[in-house]
Amino acid sequence: MENHTPTILDEKKWFQLFSNKARVLYPPTDPAHDYLHIMRVVNTAKNLCLHEKADWNVVLPAAFFHDYINVPKGDPRRPYASQLSAEAAIEYLKSVGYPEQYYEAIRHAIEAHSYSANIKATTLEAQIVQDADRLDSLGAIGIARCFATSTMMSRPFYAEEDPWAQSRSLDDKSYGIDHFFQKLFKLVDHLNTPTAKKEGEHRIAFIKTYLEQIKREI
């Protein structure tokens, strides 16, 4: 099997170029999808590449630009955000002269990363970008992102009368904590690579410990 170690022609050049572009694309107005989120996804994706022997030439730009077009939650265009991002990312890569032999693989990796798009990741590189993005929804950072999004959507952290949905249906459009049970705990079952699955289990365990503390406090 060919060994795809994460090396790329002029990697430092492309990393810096993409990083500079990302600073412009992802402002701090949405802390759940800002430049820091992008850099965490890039760094996680690089680690997954090392362990899973994937092609960093595809994963690097796909990880940087998976949210090129950020459609807000609740917007009817949300399921198409990853396709819009893929098109915009390829146009940008063309403009900076990134090697075109990687375009289709990059396009697929960006399109397939989105949970709401429901596009199956058919390549290892697409699976890694998807895993890296989903891992950022879990663990300590995942908790912070969940509550940041709750604040932006003006929804309370929990339902006053029934915080743990013991006698009501889960509703993460109305309550922040519901999102852990309605979606985030299920993400680990949708991770692709063994490395990501192991890390996902660790992060889920942390969230459950955190929620036990919330129970004590409210």
TrEMBL record:
PROSITE patterns, per the entry:
HD (PS51831)
Q: Which UniProt keywords apply?
A: Hydrolase
Does the UniProt entry include the keyword Ribonucleoprotein?
no
* GO terms for MF: hydrolase activity
The UniProt record lists the keyword Hydrolase = yes
Q: Which residues form the HD domain?
A: 34-138
Name the chain's protein: Hydrolase
